[in-house]
Structure formats: C-alpha cells, structure tokens
Design goal:
Blueprint (H helix, E strand, L loop, with lengths): L2 H29 L8 H21 L10 H20 L12 H31 L6 H16 L5 H22 L5
Helix pairs in contact: 1-2, 1-3, 2-3, 2-6, 3-4, 4-5, 5-6
Length: 187
C-alpha cells in the first residue's frame, strides 16, 4: 500500500460523511415535504456542496505520486475535506420527525459560519498547494480560487434573501464551469 493509498482512506471517509449528510438530508427533505417550505438558496447550496465535496475527492488523485508527506502537511491537506463536511452539515438543519423545518431560518442563522468556511476552503487549498510545491502557480485555477474566496467573503455580508438566492445560483454556475474546465478527467 502506497502512502497515498493509506492517507486517502481518511480523506475518503470524511468526504463520504459530507456526501452522506447531503444525500440523506435530500432524502429527508423529500420524506418531510409536507412540513418543509422549499428554500431555493439551501437547495442550490446542497447541489453545490455535493459538487465541491466530489471535486475535493476527485482532485485528491493529483497527489497520488506524492511521497514527501508529513503529519502537518497531511493535517493541512485534511482541512479541505473537513471544511467540506462542515459546510455540508451547516447547510441543513436537524431534520427530525416532530418539528416544522425552517430551511430559510437555518441558512440565515448559519450564514456567517457558512460563508466564513466557504471563504476558508479555497484559502486552505492555496496554502496546501504552496506548501507542497514551494509556491503557488499563478494560473486560471489560482485565479478562480482567489476570486471565489473573495466572492464568498463579500457574499457572507449580504443579508437579503433575494440576493442570497442569486449568490447561490451564481456560485453553482461558477463551480460547474470551474470543474468542467479544469477537472473533466483524472490527470
């Protein structure tokens, strides 16, 4: 077993937990549809977080030839799937059987943390790349991550529900374009 195979198990577990949170949350929303007021912003973020978590796992393959792992570089690397998991957990409230479910209220209560973590994610990605390569390459990928971090930082300051809906849709479209451009095949 290579170092990558050994270390990728923990990454896969955390990404799997994030995807489980999103997918089981989607199934519960369907089951509890009579007590849930649809909230387009939350649903958009759920789709986006599914893509982000899958992309974190997909991009991990790029590290398959790395042999210079140490505990602290691995912890930094692990912050990406951990952040993806936390975002996936924050986007949905507890979906119990007895209470009315307020997706809008949950999003508004968690908005500062949600966007703080969404800003943190590309920053961690850039820091990990810089540590791994000794520098961050200035290219379209780096530009997207810096731009997305700024987008998330500004978006977290906006309270308007209508604007948040547009932000979620714009973020979804941006990430879809990013993944389609940079990650269509394993490299």
């Amino acid at each position: 077993m290579s170092q990558f195979e050994y270390l990728s198990v923990l990454v896969s577990i955390i990404v799997g937990l994030a995807l489980t949170q999103l997918l089981s949350g989607a199934a519960r929303l369907i089951q509890l549809r009579g007590r849930v007021q649809p909230h387009a912003t939350t649903l958009c973020w759920m789709v986006l977080l599914f893509l982000i978590n899958t992309q974190i796992w997909w991009a991990a393959f790029d590290r398959r030839d790395s042999t210079d792992w140490n505990f602290f570089s691995f912890l930094l690397y692990l912050l990406m799937p951990i952040t993806g998991f936390l975002l996936s957990y924050l986007v949905l409230p507890e979906l119990g059987d007895s209470d009315a479910i307020d997706l809008s209220g949950n999003f508004n209560r968690n908005r500062p943390w949600f966007f703080g973590l969404l800003t943190f994610l590309p920053c961690v990605s850039l820091a990990e790349e810089g540590l791994r390569h000794g520098a961050v390459t200035l290219n379209g990928d780096t530009g997207f991550r810096v731009g997305f971090a700024l987008f998330a930082l500004v978006s977290g300051r906006i309270a308007s529900e209508r604007v948040q809906r547009w932000i979620a849709l714009a973020a979804l479209l941006l990430v879809c374009a990013y993944v389609a451009e940079l990650f269509p095949r394993l490299r």
